[in-house]
Specification:
The complex is a heterodimer of chains A (481) and B (425). With 481 residues, chain A is of the alpha/beta class. Helix content of chain A is 25%, strand content 20%. Chain A has eleven helices and 16 strands. Chain B is an alpha/beta fold and 425 residues long. Chain B is built from 15 helices and 16 strands. Chain B has helices at 2-5, 8-20, 128-133, 165-168, 181-186, 192-211, 213-217, 228-238, 251-264, 280-285, 310-316, 334-343, 348-353, 357-362, 409-417; strands at residues 29-36, 44-52, 55-60, 70-73, 78-81, 83-88, 137-142, 151-159, 169-179, 244-248, 268-272, 290-292, 321-323, 380-383, 394-399, 402-403. In chain B, strands 1, 2, 3, 4, 5, 14, 15 and 16 form an eight-stranded mixed β-sheet that branches. Classes of the chains: A alpha/beta (481), B alpha/beta (425). Chains A and B meet through helix 2 and helix 9 of A and helix 12 and helix 15 of B.
Chain lengths: 481, 425
């Protein structure tokens, strides 16, 4: 499989980061990387996504938040064949001569890029939330890098349909946080499908879910049914667990690369290890690390672990204390995926403040509003608005054209798909939301959502074929939202 | 001695700040020139409200301001009654998980179910209370969780001003909380019908006990399923001195709860009711109020008809409803919940009432709080704008006429970390 340009970009960023960091005593140098190999990047479950049919569409006279930090009053966007053709003021974007052109008159309405959630469990913890559908945590070992969240995804989870009504066009589905290393996450398009492969975002890198803190030590620190406690039982046990796994992965990677350098002799082919293959792909820069981590000090520890083994962290998740280490995040080019206001449900969430996201943003780091929740994913824009309000109250002004980046461009960056989506720019995927008003008002609602130029949500005319099977013929509420 | 050495003035300031949360006394305050939503008349745009001795003294377009009153310029601001969250565990829960000793919401002791009263577990110094009140929530129900029984226990009504808890209590107990439907079934051996039967037996036993206390004390009465303490508590429900709050969601569970309440002649409040809109006319004709959360819509097997439009549809059918957070750390999100109800079809005035006047009425204190009119308790909030909007902030919060301090632990953390250059690496 050919490496995609954005993976290359990620690898370069990583190299730049590690070279800019001062050496620290006692820290072994990163493993010698050598030339990149595709050995670990194979995907036996390739994307079969095909964009839905869509007509050339012009939305005009709207307030357009481009996701690049700009706002265009009386703006317009034109898209065709799944791609954005142009974004400009209405006056500057003349309608093409196309008898099938759909023109949406959007005075008083707002247009944004499709919203992107870096942290969802849709499909793996589907609705209804019953034991039959609890498929998000492989709680059988603290390191389960071998599992892939996509193999738990139920494409018929009605939550996907609710999410698109909230403007979500792409999302990363992750394993849960019971394990130190929980497995691979997958980025999908929020489209109806009969298989998850048909949702899989073409070319998006996989994610690797890692988890700090309380969850792994709680799950594995208490005596199991066997009566035998197993590790980790402590935070120091957590860190030993990550490092042990990365040592094995480094050796595995070196073994395969030596074999490849020797001409890949069939007789000497190393034994495949599904777990280490995923970790080796991280070390190779082909899989992006998404690290559940609440406390600031633990984030700093994880930055050191990453440096020890020569990988980069794409985003910390939850990061309730990101504001305490926002300078570290900025220096290391690590995103933080955060809630607007969740706090206190455990000690590592006790220091949550509503300015968290705004402070990370202000520090020049990559701030993201994430959900981790089937309801929250329906209103990432509203959570961003809560942060704007709290920040303003504390003297930090974040205008809409910046705040929209928390739910569009920045999550796209963290997922390695910013080259295709996350902003409204010519040539990018036509992932577009038309809002009834300012998306940061509680009263505004998504009226239309386009994925790759196809309108997959129309508030005025819901299409039953786009509903998920579970709700089909089930209840009068149906897709009531 | 040290405090004298460091200077008397700072100490006095600190004391004044501390007491400003509650004990400043009978300061007269006039909020002048704001848009005032009174819940009893059309909004005053603008108007003036005067607070004195813990009460609303007067309100009107040109209400007279007493000499010497502190005047708050309300130009461009919005005034509402204090918000009222109808389901929280404020004071009972500090840290939800793995923090021993910080959670007092329930017990596994099967002898303490209906008799569970949270008052002695409420911590007025909880960090959650300031975090909640600075966002305009001035009163809350504190309800227990289910422990060993589908009867969780008694809820109380508190204000979010300073402690001790005795100073916060407004109604104790205010209601009895229990669960039917899925949750009730799981605590009654696994079937909905068993849960109904347990509840029926409990009420019948309470009535029998109340009529035969002497015989019971002498050991001359049949055995009861519940302890003496639980029966005593349930007598309040059996006599309709307090309402029974039943958590139910599925339409058939709502109907079963309505039937049971009619059969046993109970004063019923329904909680949750995610499928409530499908049986709204039945709920309305039974004159049973409901507590709803407009922030949920994902289907479960007991909530297949869940929709964000539930509140709007219940309201349109004539059901009395309060919007509750069913949360503690984020009780402050009842504003967001009310805004979502409006976004999904509920009239704005009704949504504001659902977090102010309706809860007051449901919990039997509508003659004291929930409106801005002379003689009412002065729970008043001055907002930077529309209180249901996500970017609006509460500028001044009065509880019983006292302006509460803007200080919270979260604010202190923000200020500590505002400038990282002052902190060690």
């Amino acid at each position: 499989m050919r490496r995609r340009p954005w993976i290359l970009a990620t690898a370069l960023t990583m190299a730049a980061c590690s070279s800019s960091q001062p050496e620290r005593g006692g820290t072994p140098a990163p493993q010698t990387a050598g030339p990149h190999t595709d050995l670990f990047a194979t995907d036996p479950f390739p994307s079969t996504y095909q964009r839905f049919p869509g007509q050339q569409t012009l939305i005009r006279h709207a307030t357009v938040l481009t996701g690049t930090g700009e706002v265009i009053e009386d703006g317009a966007i034109l898209f065709r064949d799944g791609q954005i053709v142009g974004v400009a003021s209405t006056a500057a974007l003349s309608p093409p001569n196309d008898p099938t052109l759909i023109v949406v008159e959007a005075a008083g309405k707002w247009v944004t890029p499709g919203l992107i959630d870096t942290h969802s469990h849709l499909g793996v913890y589907a609705s209804p939330g019953i034991a039959s559908l609890s498929d998000g945590n492989e709680m059988t070992d603290p390191v389960t890098a071998e599992v892939w969240a996509e193999h738990s995804i139920w494409p018929q989870d009605p939550g996907f349909g609710h999410a698109i009504a909230g403007g979500i066009t792409s999302l990363q589905v992750l394993p849960g946080s019971a394990n130190l290393i929980g497995g691979r996450g997958v980025t999908v398009k929020n489209v109806p499908a009969r298989s998850y492969q048909a949702m899989k975002f073409p070319g998006a890198p996989h994610g690797l879910k890692m988890a700090c803190g309380e969850n792994p030590k709680r799950v594995y620190g208490t005596a199991r049914e066997s009566g035998t406690p197993r590790g980790p039982a402590t935070r120091m046990g957590n860190v030993a667990g990550y490092r042990t796994a990365w040592i094995e992965a480094s050796e595995y990677r070196a073994r395969w690369k030596r074999w490849e350098a020797a001409g890949s002799p069939a007789a000497d082919r190393p034994e495949r290890d599904l777990q280490l293959e995923t970790l080796a792909a991280v070390l190779e820069g082909d899989i992006l690390v998404h690290n559940h981590c609440y406390r600031g000090d633990e984030m700093v520890t994880m930055i050191d672990v990453a440096r020890e083994f020569g990988y980069s962290i794409s985003s910390f998740h939850h990061a309730v204390e990101a504001y305490k280490v926002r300078d570290y995040l900025a220096e290391n080019d690590i995103c933080a995926s955060m809630w607007a206001d969740w706090w206190g449900f455990k000690l590592e969430a006790f220091d949550g403040i509503k300015e968290n996201i705004a402070l990370v943003h202000e520090a020049g780091a990559c701030a993201i509003v994430h959900s981790d929740d089937g309801h929250g994913i329906q209103r990432l824009n509203q959570d961003a608005a809560k942060v704007m309000g709290a920040a303003a109250q504390s003297g930090i002004s974040v205008p809409p054209e910046q705040a929209i980046r928390w739910v569009t461009a920045n999550p796209a960056k963290a997922l390695g798909i910013l080259g295709q989506t996350g902003t409204l720019e010519a040539g990018k995927n036509a992932d577009v939301v038309l809002w009834s008003g300012d998306p940061f008002s509680v009263y505004s609602r998504a009226e239309g959502v386009w994925v790759d130029g196809a309108q997959l949500y129309d508030r005025t005319a819901p299409d039953p074929l786009l509903h998920r099977d579970f709700m089909t013929g089930m209840a009068p509420g149906g897709m009531g939202r | 001695m040290k405090r004298f050495a460091t200077g008397l003035v700072p100490v006095m300031t600190a004391l004044a700040l501390t007491s400003s949360a509650g004990a400043v006394g009978a300061q007269t305050v006039a909020i002048q020139g704001a848009t005032i939503h009174t819940n009893v008349q059309d909004p005053l745009e603008p108007g003036t409200v005067v607070i004195q001795d813990g009460q609303i003294l007067r309100v009107g377009r040109d209400a007279e301001i007493p000499v010497g009153a502190r005047i708050i310029d309300g130009t461009g601001l919005v005034v509402t009654p204090g918000l009222f969250d109808s389901w929280t565990q404020l004071g009972l829960v500090e840290i939800g998980l793995s923090a021993e000793g910080t959670v007092d919401r329930t017990t596994s002791d099967e002898r303490i179910t209906a008799s569970f009263n949270p008052v002695d577990g409420i911590n007025p110094a909880s960090t959650l209370i300031p975090v909640t009140r600075v966002e305009g929530i001035t009163r809350a129900i504190v309800a227990p969780s289910n422990g060993a029984s589908l009867i969780a226990g008694q809820g109380v009504l508190i204000d979010l001003g300073p402690g001790p808890v005795t100073a916060m209590l407004m109604e104790n107990p205010v209601a009895m909380f229990a669960s039917l439907g899925e949750a009730g079934a799981s605590m009654a051996g696994g079937a909905r019908s068993a849960a109904i039967q347990q509840l029926r037996e409990a009420i019948q036993d309470a009535r029998d006990y109340a009529a035969n206390r002497d015989a019971f004390a002498q050991g001359n009465r049949r055995g009861y399923a519940l302890s003496r303490m639980d029966l005593e508590a349930l007598v309040l429900v059996a006599n309709t001195d307090i309402p029974l709050v039943l958590e139910v969601h599925r339409a058939s569970d709502i109907q079963a709860a309505l039937r049971l309440a009619e059969e046993l002649e109970l004063d019923l409040v329904l909680s949750g009711v995610q499928e409530g809109w499908t049986v709204a006319t039945e709920i309305a004709s039974a004159r049973v109020p409901v507590l709803v959360n407009p922030l949920v819509n994902l289907p479960g097997f007991a909530s297949l008809a869940a929709t964000y439009e539930n509140a709007a549809r219940l309201h349109a059918a004539g059901v009395t409803l309060a919007i509750a957070s069913f949360d503690s750390h984020n009780s402050r999100n009842i504003k967001h919940a009310a805004g979502m109800a409006v976004a999904h079809g509920m009239p704005w005035d009704a949504a504001l009432e659902a977090i102010t006047l309706r809860p007051a009425q449901i919990w039997g204190v509508g003659d004291r709080v929930g409106t801005i009119e002379p003689g009412r308790v002065a729970d008043v909030v001055v907002w930077s704008g529309d209180p249901l909007e996500l970017t609006t902030a509460a500028r001044h919060v009065f509880i019983e006429g006292q302006e509460i301090s803007p200080d919270t632990r979260q604010k202190a953390l923000f200020e500590k970390y505002r400038d990282l250059s002052r902190l060690p690496r």
